[in-house]
């Protein structure tokens, strides 16, 4: 006979409420079933961290359950875009994306068309790469000044900033083989699927913003400035620093996936929201280009990765960008046509990309001096 269930719930406030309400409504069922095994139907937003039962002889006396709950960030099902004729499904996804991009600048995508097997293979390859000695990794040392960025950036000596990265460019770029051989095929496949998804999300955003049909597609018609970064965040020490560099993404749309280890947090209304992506989902976020073009209608949200204690975190970020020669500026659709003033000066994407690269290769003494999109903000003083 089960006597007690102890539940600890981690996550954001609303997520906790949802999780606890869910647990309460299942309490009867849980009690009668739990003698054998913890059984709870989990929504995509709620997942187990751990559960442990204390047994006395054949009796289970107590069960500890830890769930991670995160109800805030919307999860958008994109399957309607891969199935002919599901117009209602498309409309639903579009409305959810519109709300997510103006509220959070972030959403989680499921049924996104990127094979899950490819995502897990890619994570395995990057883990094997980062396990190599530095001298091997440095054979692919970061190429100074290259756009898009390319090569391996080792972790700085600073114990507060232990993370290393491998930047990789599309297979159709002339010097695309500057990356470890194990990545070559995976990169071809990843650029293929992730650029397809980039096209799709870009066209949905185009429609959400009320832009003329295919406007963004015609503006952003060159894929050679896209890039992929494989990240390795070292485990944080048991006590002391957790590295938390805040940033927005400088590109158009970013897609991220991880080895299921939490750490990503999004800033909203003065609070950090921890993101717990369901298995196989992608984190999607709007970058600075969309924020500028839409004159702040869609947000490029500040986010950070808090290094987890005791274990490494691996992730991939695919940066769907625009060509460096493109002018990025608030569109008349969101300024003159609405009687609003532009919030940013126009700039060439390559200038901004270079300033952001310098942030990485020559970090300023204080993180507040990192160059971000506010560099181009028009202030009314
Ligand atoms: O690793 C992650 O979850 C996020 C990475 C990220 O924010 C980035 O690459 O810009
Ligand atoms: Fe980011």
UniProtKB/TrEMBL annotation:
Keywords: Iron, Metal-binding, Oxidoreductase
Superkingdom of the source species: Eukaryota
Entry GO MF terms: 2-oxoglutarate-dependent dioxygenase activity; metal ion binding
Matches recorded under InterPro entries: DIOX_N (IPR026992), IPNS-like_FE2OG_OXY (IPR044861), IPNS-like_sf (IPR027443), Iron_ascorbate_oxido_reductase (IPR050231), KH_dom-like_a/b (IPR015946), Oxoglu/Fe-dep_dioxygenase_dom (IPR005123), RbfA (IPR000238), RbfA_dom_sf (IPR023799)
Fe2OG dioxygenase domain location: 224-322
A Pfam family hit: 2OG-FeII_Oxy
GO biological process, one term: rRNA processing
Family according to the record: Belongs to the iron/ascorbate-dependent oxidoreductase family.
Designated name of the protein: Fe2OG dioxygenase domain-containing protein
């Amino acid at each position: 006979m089960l006597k007690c269930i102890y539940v600890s719930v981690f996550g954001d406030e609303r997520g906790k409420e949802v999780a606890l309400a869910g647990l309460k409504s299942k309490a009867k069922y849980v009690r009668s079933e739990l003698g054998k095994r913890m059984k709870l139907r989990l929504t995509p937003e709620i997942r187990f961290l751990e559960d442990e039962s204390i047994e006395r002889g054949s009796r289970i006396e107590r069960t500890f359950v830890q769930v991670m709950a995160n109800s805030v960030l919307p999860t958008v099902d994109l399957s309607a875009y891969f199935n002919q004729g599901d117009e209602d499904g498309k409309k639903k996804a579009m409305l959810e994306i519109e709300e997510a991009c103006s509220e959070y600048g972030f959403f989680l995508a499921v049924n996104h068309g990127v094979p899950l097997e490819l995502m897990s293979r890619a994570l395995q390859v990057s883990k094997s790469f980062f396990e190599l000695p530095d001298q091997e990794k440095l054979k692919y040392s970061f190429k100074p000044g290259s756009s898009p960025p390319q090569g391996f950036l080792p972790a700085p000596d600073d114990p507060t900033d232990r993370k290393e990265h491998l930047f990789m460019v599309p297979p159709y770029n002339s010097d695309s083989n500057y990356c470890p051989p194990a990545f070559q095929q995976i990169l071809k496949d990843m650029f293929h699927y992730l650029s397809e998804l980039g096209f799709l999300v870009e066209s949905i955003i185009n429609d959400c913003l009320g832009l003329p049909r295919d406007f963004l597609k015609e503006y952003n018609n060159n894929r050679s400035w896209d890039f992929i970064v494989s990240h390795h965040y070292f485990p944080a020490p048991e006590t002391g620093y957790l590295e938390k560099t805040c940033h927005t993404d400088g590109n158009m749309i970013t897609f991220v996936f991880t080895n299921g280890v939490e750490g990503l947090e999004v800033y909203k209304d003065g609070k950090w929201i921890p993101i717990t992506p369901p298995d196989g989902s992608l984190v999607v976020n709007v970058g600075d280009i969309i924020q500028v073009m839409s004159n702040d209608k869609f947000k490029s949200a500040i986010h950070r990765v808090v290094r987890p204690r005791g274990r490494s975190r691996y992730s991939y970020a695919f940066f769907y960008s625009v060509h460096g020669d493109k002018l990025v500026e608030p569109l008349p659709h969101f300024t003159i046509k609405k009687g609003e003033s532009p919030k940013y000066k126009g700039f060439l994407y390559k200038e901004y990309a270079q300033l952001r690269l310098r942030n990485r290769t020559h970090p300023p003494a204080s993180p507040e001096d990192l160059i971000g999109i506010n560099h181009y903000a028009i202030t009314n003083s």
